[in-house]
Design brief:
Blueprint (H helix, E strand, L loop, with lengths): L21 H5 L1 H5 L11 H30 L3 H25 L4 H5 L14 H10 L14 H10 L5 H13 L16 H12 L5 H32 L11 H7 L6 H9 L1
Helix pairs in contact: 3-4, 3-6, 3-8, 4-10, 6-7, 8-9, 8-10, 9-12, 10-11
């Protein structure tokens, strides 16, 4: 019989008095004590953890999108590709989270739904910030954060700067020598014939415009994963609450279905018909 494995014999540190440990570095005491169910329902912990972990992934997505936008604005395009690809993978993780939540049945959810009050994912500041950063901007969506002037100020500030797609289009305009169409930065991106034709030029000659061609595909990939996240959200809501209104007062599934029609980078999708 072999002796029990002793990691200390291989040099593993075993004493952490006065030294940083794994728990210390990750702040696990704060993270693992941040779940406070308001009912005795077993599935409320699942509901809380699924949304908390999603918010952590969204924090990383915002970090990567902000840096990618800065890199694109500074013509540091290739490092931005890695960050955009990472955001797509983050949304793949967010998609998988719905699979876990869908193990909760309608009967499970009704045991604690009243405890949520009017709280709703509709009020997620980070989700709204992601949408604003990508270009889906609606000043009315700031109002649910009026009770938090700090968050409201950050959303208002985001509306004053170019979105990720604005920055990508600015780079496109310089490469193919067009004037960017004037637009209100606080509004969503709408299809534009001039931009569609310019991106089409890139797709018709990818060897000449390879960096822009790759940028366009990275953006389409990101929106692809984002759309899947929205679709899985709708499916999960329908599966759990049917057509009832959301806790935050929205139409629930009906509201989410309208969001499926939103195009973040419309010209990149519309050009495909002409190719």
């Amino acid at each position: 019989m072999t002796d029990p494995y002793n990691p200390e014999t291989e040099g593993a540190k075993m004493s952490f008095d006065g030294a940083m440990s794994y728990t210390d570095y990750l702040g696990l005491d704060a993270i693992l004590s941040a779940q406070h169910p308001l009912s005795d329902a077993n599935d409320e912990l699942l509901f809380i953890i699924q949304h908390q972990t999603s918010e952590l992934w969204m924090k990383l997505a915002l970090h990567e999108l902000t840096e990618a936008r800065h890199q694109l604005a500074e013509d540091d395009i290739r490092p931005a590709f890695k960050r955009l690809a990472r955001v797509s993978r983050i949304f793949e993780q967010l998609n998988s989270a719905w699979d876990v939540l869908r193990t909760m049945t309608p009967s499970d959810y009704t045991t604690f739904r009243d405890a949520l009050g009017h709280s709703s994912g509709f009020q997620s500041f980070q989700y709204r910030m992601i949408e604003f950063t990508l270009g889906n901007r609606n000043p009315a969506m700031i109002r649910p954060h009026a009770h938090r002037p700090d968050l409201m100020a950050r959303l208002e500030a985001e509306l004053t700067q170019p979105s990720l797609y604005d920055v990508a289009n600015a780079r496109l305009a310089r490469a193919v020598s067009i004037d960017l169409p004037a637009r209100d930065q606080a509004t969503p991106h709408a299809p534009d014939d001039c931009l569609r034709a310019a991106w089409e030029q890139v797709y018709r000659d990818p060897q000449r415009y390879w960096d822009l061609y790759e940028l366009a595909e990275k953006l389409v990939d990101l929106e692809d994963y984002f759309r899947r996240w929205r679709f899985n959200h709708v499916t999960t809501v329908e599966r759990v609450i049917g057509l009832k209104r959301g806790t935050g007062g929205t139409g629930g599934a009906s509201y989410l279905k309208r969001m499926l029609e939103v195009e973040l980078f419309p010209d990149l999708w519309h050009l495909r018909t002409a190719l």
